[in-house]
Amino acid sequence: MTLSVPVLPEGVDPAWLPPEAFRAVGARRTLIRGSGPLVETVHGEVADACGRFGGEVVRGEPSGAPYDLVLEVTDADPGLGLGLGLGLGLGLGLGEEGFVCRRADGTTTVTAAGPRGLLYGLFHVVRLGEAAFRGERRHEAHRPAVALRMVDHWDNVAVHPVMGQVERGYAGGSLFWRDGRARGEVERVRAYGRLLAACGINAVAVNNVNVHATEARLLTDRIGEVAVIADALRPYGIRTHLSVTFAAPVVLGGLPTADPLDARVRQWWARAVRGVYAAIPDFGGFVVKADSEGRPGPFTYGRSHADGANMLAAALAPHGGTVHWRAFVYDHRQDWRDRTTDRARAAYDHFVPLDGEFADNAVLQVKHGPMDFQVREPVSPLLGAMPRTRLALEVQATQEYTGQQRHVCWLGPMWSEALRFRPEGEGGVPVGEVTRGGLVAVSNVGDDPFWTGHPLAQANLYTFGRLAWQPDADPRRVLDEWIALTFPSAPERLVAGLRTLLRGSWRTYEKYTTPLGVGFMVQPGHHYGPSVDGYEYSPWGTYHFADRDGIGVDRSAATGTGYAAQYAGPWAELYESPATCPDELLLFFHHVPYGHVLHSGKTVVQHIYDTHFEGVAEVEEARELWASLADLVGPARHARGTERYEEQLRCAREWRDQVNSYVLRKSGVPDEHGRTIY
Amino acid sequence: MTLSVPVLPEGVDPAWLPPEAFRAVGARRTLIRGSGPLVETVHGEVADACGRFGGEVVRGEPSGAPYDLVLEVTDADPGLGLGLGLGLGLGLGLGEEGFVCRRADGTTTVTAAGPRGLLYGLFHVVRLGEAAFRGERRHEAHRPAVALRMVDHWDNVAVHPVMGQVERGYAGGSLFWRDGRARGEVERVRAYGRLLAACGINAVAVNNVNVHATEARLLTDRIGEVAVIADALRPYGIRTHLSVTFAAPVVLGGLPTADPLDARVRQWWARAVRGVYAAIPDFGGFVVKADSEGRPGPFTYGRSHADGANMLAAALAPHGGTVHWRAFVYDHRQDWRDRTTDRARAAYDHFVPLDGEFADNAVLQVKHGPMDFQVREPVSPLLGAMPRTRLALEVQATQEYTGQQRHVCWLGPMWSEALRFRPEGEGGVPVGEVTRGGLVAVSNVGDDPFWTGHPLAQANLYTFGRLAWQPDADPRRVLDEWIALTFPSAPERLVAGLRTLLRGSWRTYEKYTTPLGVGFMVQPGHHYGPSVDGYEYSPWGTYHFADRDGIGVDRSAATGTGYAAQYAGPWAELYESPATCPDELLLFFHHVPYGHVLHSGKTVVQHIYDTHFEGVAEVEEARELWASLADLVGPARHARGTERYEEQLRCAREWRDQVNSYVLRKSGVPDEHGRTIY
């Protein structure tokens, strides 16, 4: 049965899949060969496009005139007989998600080894547009670098009294849940799955890693609600995952313990997992936040995180499921007076001793930086220190610390830097290859008509998906894809404008917020807007130690917390000294006088003043540029963006003035250019 | 009908009315003469006491043996014929709340001009205890200095998403409301009224001055719920008041405007008030927070606050009601960059031009300081600047900024200082006589078993009531009353211990929190615990302007905001110069270098260090002292106090270390004594 394309509810933005994006395919004659549910999805997509643009789609064996496009699934691994070895690593084959694209004799052919590959191949052709049907194309093989490309939703089922429906959500309510119940809006969820598939994402965790009482029950008596979501996402090649509480055997099962080595506990989990797979046969697995920020975990029972993760892995293994165990473990009740404890060290200190102890289907999910999704952090040293463990990299598409989708902050370059980082130094393997356990983004999507609050924040989700598919991709090329899909046949003025607005937006945000990697100068709790000392005397381990003489955290091995020594040789050496440490991370690694001269030639204090004035000026320019695009982006989108740019500018000015005033009041050093600091 | 004494629910502390406090009265023969509902209350009290302690009470004409105690109401003003002129101001009479107490020939006699006076006379005898029945007592006349002695409850009917059931409540839920409904726990409300009457309070406002949607309706269709409370409180001489929203004609009446000069609006209010009085014939009046922190008000319609207050006064006048109009009007969206705007000036600037324009039954309710219930503020200059306006003084029994009833902070001395302050200087009239429109405390009571969270916080409510009755009373004498009532026959060790714990507690709190009057170094939002810069870059007008050279707010006329000039001559002169400004207010009035030498001989910075170390040491001592009283205060009370002292000590250390670290980091000046600063 051909599967119909989901119909967007009235007023919901099509994001990067407007009907127009399918014009090139929809105007052609297409032959589809193969079978299986996802082939029906592909057929539905092509049929829908043909319905709009006058083309034709045929199933099964060719008949009549030659086809413009052939989409086919082969039984054999197409690594054989198709000459695919050219584009693939030796012996790897395409896998079930890969495909080959070529064009000869007026026909463009996509060949996949499985229906999922065909779906990705179709979206590849969509991205190519008219170019897919011009000239000749050599065999070009595509397969995802990473098997698991996931978004984790921090969606609560019941509205949390402090965190709301979506924890750190800046795009309205949840697509899945509302006020304690499943929303059941299957069509919107299908449309969401389609968007995810079009950028290569193949897994979704449907609830917050902070699993509260209501959410805990999704694992057991409410698994049916998860199954409805899974059914809606499956036709787009997406498997569903669940965040679970480590205390489930106690809070749901009535057991006196959740000790991972207790036989009753293991039996309880085995039974619970059987129930899950009965409802969702292709269930992906669990996401677990344990012994982290107050969540329960194996420490309660004197067990290690490997014990905890392996117990869940054992329950999941017979069904092909995976446990994603988060490495975000640190002391969130630190005494700010104690300068020897360093939160940045925590994940490494906790997990490196466990390397090699995790089960095959246990993945350690590591945030890209050692702290918590700040605008600038070094890459987590854990990523280079656990060679015998499957690692997943977690990034945050939801802009908790990067403007909360009121500010434009395209994170592609930041993620790309992390993915290209080579923990062993030059010649080593980049992070994007280390993290074979998956690439994960915390979702930035909600029930907002634009999906992501700020319409331009859509680019973050799209970019994440594409980088997860190909971690060494140039993010700017990905951004251009997003622009081309979202604004089909955009005039050059719009393309250039959007590039300008997005490409530099992360650097701009960094300029007017926390300087030189020091992080966490945000309002406590909600994390929006500046509060330079907001976390300075808190138990959260997030300090800048500014005094009248200097600022920054000494994380050197020689005189500081020793964090710098968690890196392999070349990086440890580079970060150890202020003389070699990159400017943008200087205050993350070192406490320096305000007069310290950066590699840029500026003093730290003048750098702070200058970047804060520049950052605001850049936001002012961006706002003007957005205003000039009013005629090209559609009125609703433009109005939304305009409102957000107003707020971004107001907030950027607040950041500028608070940070500059704070630094001036403390340092006493006047601005070289005599600008107003309060 | 004799009214029975309210029975406390199981586990609720009797506070300052334990049965034992009535022993002296209850063991005697008492004659009660007079009639009216409150006489029945008096009879019920005495009868209850006699039932416990073996005495006897007789109504009406004397019979048989002489009486130990005669409680009588005369029809004529007892100022005539009883020689009362001795104790009263000439020609004032006793009024309906006054009474005369004397003892001769073995009989103690209380004579009152009305039943309310008799009730207060009875509690006077209870306070005297055995002393009331010894020797002779000369005629001694008592009457309250202020007619209205009110507690304002900031209780919400519906739980507010941020502020909860009781705004700034630190004693559990509300006695009146829960989850959107009236609790209907009449017996507890009666017991509460009895406690209030015993310290002289005669008015209660039953809902938060921030009137939200649910609470607005108390004025109209939910007035019956208020009437139930009024009925419970009336037998203890307490009139009920209501906080109303200025926008009521719009939000409840469906009118297009709440313009106070609009005839439809005036008619709407007149009708609403008629409805109120139909339900509560002795209704006291309205409390209004208008054009304040986002509340609606007359400014919306280009009208003055006199226009607004007088409109409500006109509606209330035919029924004998009063409007209490709060003077807490300031710009809560101030730009922190603008040093010319001074929130401290706001009430004066807004209201002094309106002096003489308010109706007779409109009272302007003024906070005791110009800011917002900080641990140290100067007395509001408004109190000396509106001679043709009825003023009420508002203090805050709920300890929003003074430890939130987790810290012991007995506010008697602070309030007494304000009441004794003479706005015109020496020879002028004290605030306690200026504020004839009433003395008002924001309630510190909730449904907590100890009423006030910390058992020792009961002393604040008691002290407020007694100071409202007699503003020039020595607060230490009032404290001794509270100790004697609450702990009948307490051994000297307990009396001395409680005195030590309470008398100095305000100064102790001041020592370890914000120094020298600068205020507002609290955590934003909930206002508990330190955050030195928490309000420094906020829109709330609450700044300390600390930089590396100095700290404080220049409010002088010569170089600052001019606030000091709002005072009459002698005070304006005193506050104008750092050379004459009292130490404890120095940083409120002046920005000075850290090295500025106080009258105490210490520098500002050393004073800050010293007081912060001292304050914590004093809390440590207080905790030890409390521990030593374990055998004398009862186990439940002691356990509660112990838990609170632990928290007070933890929090005091946090204050000490954060304030000292902040100042050290900014000033660079080391502690003279080399103590640890982080």
Tell me what you see in this structure.
- Two copies of one chain form a homodimer.
- Chain A is of the alpha/beta class and 678 residues long.
- The first copy, chain A, is built from 20 helices and 20 strands.
- The first copy, chain A, has helices spanning 23-26, 37-53, 115-128, 186-199, 213-216, 223-233, 248-251, 263-279, 305-316, 346-351, 412-420, 431-434, 458-469, 475-486, 492-503, 505-512, 569-576, 586-589, 604-628, 635-667; strands at residues 29-33, 56-59, 69-73, 99-104, 107-112, 137-142, 149-152, 155-160, 164-166, 177-178, 181-182, 203-205, 239-243, 285-288, 322-326, 362-367, 391-396, 438-442, 550-551, 592-593.
- In chain A, the strands form five sheets. In chain A, strands 7-12-13-14-15-16-17-18 form an eight-stranded parallel beta barrel. A six-stranded mixed sheet of chain A has the order 2-1-3-5-4-6.
- In chain A, α8 (263-279) crosses α9 (305-316) and α19 (604-628) packs antiparallel against α20.
- Chain A starts with 22 loop residues before the first helix and ends in an 11-residue tail after the last helix.
- The model of chain A is unreliable at 78-92 (pLDDT under 50).
- At the A-B interface, α20 of A face α20 of B.
